[in-house]
Known about the structure:
Blueprint: H1 3-13, H2 18-25, H3 29-37, H4 44-54, H5 58-61, E1 68-69, E2 76-77, E3 83-85, E4 91-96, E5 100-101, E6 104-105, H6 110-120, H7 129-140
Antiparallel strand pairs: 1-2, 3-4, 5-6
Amino acid sequence: MEVREILRSLRETHRLTQAQLAERVHVTRQAVSRWETGETQPNTDTLQLLSQVFHVSIHTLLGAPQPLFCSCCGMPLTDAAQISREPDGRYQPEYCRWCYADGQFVYPTRAALAEYLAAHMPNPDGIDEATRRTQFDAYLSQLKHWK
Length: 147
């Protein structure tokens, strides 16, 4: 979907008129109309406001041009509810809500996250915890957050 289609769909889903949406994001009704016809697109600040109004990430508003993954644990972020938020409510699309919460990282070290994963992730092959910690640590070391 294109940005114009996404914005119109979200506005209609939330049962807002163009004028109501314009008021919430501090633009004119004509600006909303131009977004929905594809003449223009909202700027970065307005995308942040739209993200808050519709409770979706900016990534979603832009049509999710590339898949998101948590830079800390590697989990695919397929739903806006999985994406972390800053204390002011803005989405932080680089991390999942389990690794980054309330403006703070949950796992202070890669070893702490590897320990958590080894203890809580399914283990259908019955691999011992020390080996699993080593495997998780090797995987995590490849992620942006831990480099």
